[in-house]
């Protein structure tokens, strides 16, 4: 085996025992810092303390323990360089073939303290430098920063006694990414602490290509925020031979959120990122009516927990169908015209959101509003929060309908709502209407009273518009005014 000597200094000890025991069994000399040495000794794996190896103790309270020419030279020496070979002989430097290291993310540390001195003490120097050196010299040294990669290295060493060059490159790139992320988080946290010039740092994981972006002429790459949960992590494309588009993903994201938000059976239709029509706990009759009408429509995504509905939509002209039901015969799904997505329901907490529009980037925070609503009203309220202003959502018993957002004003939003309900053969009468903006005209109050709407959920009114709220109250409409505005943008 080509690995003869390894340095191990890790914070995250996941899978470490497997790697270290494998190296020991194969005669590899393992050099460790104090903490890692203690951990492996307790596991019965002999190691050499780094202080003993370099002949110099840890000093300055542990600030200096792995900064030494014997370590750096052993890692950075190139095997095909005569000058390097001579220097190693002259200065008694032994070649190091593997460096295994990792450190806590700086965000983890910052969550525990904002004390400047404590934060400074937790900035890794030596282990960080050894890893970067190993990555720089990846042709001669295996650099390991991710415990998930230990097993593939073990497998390759067992199979051929070495780690292939392609894998070494991949591992080196992961080191450079990890150290760049580490530096970025240090800068971000200290710039906030010192109120200095601010630069926001975000890292993304590339998941693959989309069929296309906003239109068929655009290439698009799908990404997610690194280390953060997203609906895509709980979504399986059963029609894996097809790739979604941006528009399909916007519909999927909306329906995923609503389906995860309720424990009841959910049936819904979304198109162009807008929730159009659906039911919470639909009856069999409601399911039949929904499917009959929805089959006539093109595009959009349908969500259903009923496998019979999924089967009925096999030849529909929709972009996709979603379900949390475990479909048995997955081979048949390949023949579906719409894409089919299996959902593992999960309520995802989100504290902030990025809005990107060309060269405009906005980062905004979320503030949750808790209301005592029926399950259907709660789903309607979630839609009002997700949609862009102006929108209006209608809820009656277990029915939820919207079909509009970003209208010119609330009056037009109500007209669009009425038209959508008519398309689904539902008369707008009684029930609840949820607005995402204050009521600001008599046309709106007249429409609410004409439809005999029983309840209105609305954000706080603006100065001069109090009279419209009063009109509704005087006519017996139940009003629920929230503490603040809630639409996203």
Automatic annotation (TrEMBL):
Gene Ontology CC: cytosol
InterPro entries, A to Z: MGS-like_dom, MGS-like_dom_sf, PurH-like
Residue ranges occupied by any MGS-like domain in the UniProt entry: 1-145
Keywords noted in UniProt: Hydrolase, Multifunctional enzyme, Purine biosynthesis, Transferase
Swiss-Prot/TrEMBL GO biological process terms: 'de novo' IMP biosynthetic process
CDD domains reported for this sequence: IMPCH
Protein name: IMP cyclohydrolase
High-level lineage: Bacteria, Thermotogati, Thermotogota, Thermotogae, Petrotogales
